[in-house]
Amino acid sequence: MREVTVAAVQMRPVLNEMEENLVRMADYIAKICGSQKVDIIVFPELITTGYECGVRFTDLAQRIPGASV
Fold first, then answer.
1. Residue 16 needs a FRET pair 20 to 30 A away by CA distance; which of 23, 25, 33, 45 works?
2. Considering the entire predicted model, what is its pTM?
3. Contact of 67 with 22, CB cutoff 8 Å
4. Can you list the alpha helix ranges (DSSP code H) found in 1-69?
5. Mean pLDDT for each 10-residue chunk of the chain (69 residues)?
């Protein structure tokens, strides 16, 4: 069995700001990959939009494939 190294990111998303959250995620990915060898980087669920999308829920939904899918 192969050993797998996983990095977990804990970050607070900016509510309803998908582009800003994707940029911040990319920064975390670059920092992690620049400092250690990992196979998988995991982020919290709903990290791209935040947890309370409210009426913007359908506006923030993405088709597959999409910017974050």
1. 33
2. 0.78
3. yes
4. 18-35, 57-60
5. 96 90 96 97 89 71 73
